Amino acid sequence: MNQHIGFIGGGNMAQAIITGLLKSGRVASDILVSDPNPESRKAIRALGVTAFNHHEPVMAQADFIILAVKPQMMDAVLTAIAPSLHKSQIIISIAAGITIRGIRRWLNEPNNTVVRVMPNTPALIGEGMSALASDTTLDDETQIAVQRIFESCGQALWVPSEDAIDTVTAVSGSGPAYFFLMIENLINTGIRLGLSPDVAHKLVVQTAKGAAQMVEFSDVGPDVLRQRVTSPGGTTEAALAVFHEGDFADLIDRALIAARDRAGELSKDAP
Ligand SMILES: NC(=O)c1ccc[n+]([C@@H]2O[C@H](COP(=O)([O-])OP(=O)(O)OC[C@H]3O[C@@H](n4cnc5c(N)ncnc54)[C@H](OP(=O)(O)O)[C@@H]3O)[C@@H](O)[C@H]2O)c1
Fold first, then answer.
1. Alpha carbon of 84 to ligand 1 centroid (Å)
2. 8 CA to middle of ligand 1, Å?
3. Is ligand 1 within 6 A of the CB of residue 143?
4. Exposed (0-12), middle (13-18) or buried (19+): which is 108, by Cβ within 10 Å?
5. Model confidence over 182-214: pLDDT tens digits?
6. CATH class of 173-267
7. Segments making up each domain of the chain, as ranges
């Protein structure tokens, strides 16, 4: 029998994951959603998936329960679903900053498998990067099943423990914004130097895509790729010298440490 995937919360992230699940061949009848927001339910139904305005049918049928509500709703949601939780159900939270310890405390349940996932925004277009962690050892079958759910909207990998999640948040959770900033500034400067907005946009976006794909598919690292396009005395070298003068590497270090530390503070504020 097919395993059922239940979502508590049917907003943007749930819709992105469901879209991926359906594209990867899951049947709509294996997916159930609960969301009190009529707009979210309408969007879920438009995908062909059943949406309820209460959690009971989801809790009664789902093998995997994905908590896809805003972090500030987690307390209320977990307290509400706790009485209908079965021992075999696997709880998966995608809420930023909510720890597994907090989830267990709110559920008042020490035994269920709980997985914490940090996805990122490109999941909305099927190009997400999700990192998964648990406080218990999952059997291979469960580990693969959970990973497959998130691979349906991009790539997914396990990190050894939840301790890594703050760093994951700094690298890939917040990461799209760093690339947006770089792209935004490259476009703006291109325009300031005389290019039309359309041309600057196209040049920068395709260059970013091409560079990312070269890193992905090359058998050498980004440092070697950079050296290969940097001829002595050439244009790239002139630009990179300016980045080095501004201590680009140190700036990245400090930015990621700030994000990691902030993620830690936000998690501490949660129970
Ligand atoms: N978006 C991202 O890129 C991203 C990245 C990483 C992690 N996340 C995490 O993903 C989670 C969901 O984010 P999102 O962007 O999908 O949020 P969202 O679009 O606001 O979706 C959350 C949905 O849950 C509904 N909801 C509220 N109370 C509920 C309840 N008691 N039971 C069931 N559903 C309830 C909300 O309805 P109302 O609108 O009426 O409240 C809304 O439809 C968040 O915890 C966030 O931290 C998101």
1. 21
2. 9
3. no
4. exposed
5. 999 999 999 999 999 999 999 999 999 999 999
6. mainly alpha
7. 5-159, 173-267
